[in-house]
Amino acid sequence: MNAIAAATLLLAAATYGAPVQDGQAAQPANPHAGHSIPAASDNAPTSEDADAIPQGVAPPVPKDHAADALFDPEVMARARAAMAKESGGMAFSKLMLDRLEFRGRKGSHGYAWEGEGWIGGDINRFAVKSEGEGELGGALESAEVQALYSRAINPWFNVEAGLRHDFRPNPQRTYAVVGIEGLAPYWFEVGAQAFVSDKGDVHLRLEGSYDQRITERLTLQPGAELNIALQDVPELGIGSGISDAEIGLRLRYEIAREFAPYVGIEWERRFGGTARHARAAGHEAASTSFVIGVRFWF
């Protein structure tokens, strides 16, 4: 063997880790040499591992109130009841003029308003409502004020009771009021009121509206109101049955959440005996108005 062959064999032995004999090919070493495969029993938990596992009864599953898992549920229930009572007893207030508008219509132009203010808490409130309309440069056609006690019966609806006084039309009337208002499924604002006057006549009013958001500031609001009389009241120009209806569509833009001008259209229609009384007084039974106004609250 010459020097070159001897050097080659030494390099192969160093590389593959196996002795190389004369006349034999170099064999690669086992890449897993020096490694052992653990037995299945090596992964079994030992007594030390078992001692580290917590023992005893598992904690109760958390329910509606996570604090009940750490504190006495009875104590926490009393705390929540006290908080709810305090929240309902705190006094807040709000004044909203939902409509203050000019009405342009054939023959004569008019104006109208509708709004309410209240003071109280989440459960009990005292509320004042007002609405009315008239002709520009003419007499006030109708105006009413309601003073009501309102109580929440669930998170969505309030019942209300109180008094209503009509300053117009003449003769004036005072009514006892009972009603319900709130937020129906699909976010419809609805209300129903029954009125019994000091003369014994009975009236019903149904209202509904919906705020359809177009953008963060632009809202389209359809709304409707229906009035029903259970008897003829000729001195007020009201016939029995469905006396009148209003349907409107208003598009408002919120410059701020508390201030929103709007434009829209309003259709009014008197029916039955009420329409006959209106014609006899020189008024149309139906009218359509273009409206422009503002809504604000604070």
UniProtKB/TrEMBL annotation:
Leader peptide range in chain numbering: 1-17
UniProt keyword list: Signal
Pfam families reported for this sequence: CopB (PF05275)
GO terms under cellular component: cell outer membrane
InterPro entries the record matches: Autotransporte_beta_dom_sf, Cu-R_B_prcur
Protein origin, superkingdom: Bacteria
Biological processes, Gene Ontology terms: intracellular copper ion homeostasis
Protein name as annotated: Copper resistance protein B
Region annotation (Disordered) ranges: 22-51
MF terms in GO: copper ion binding
Annotated organism of origin: Sphingomonas tagetis
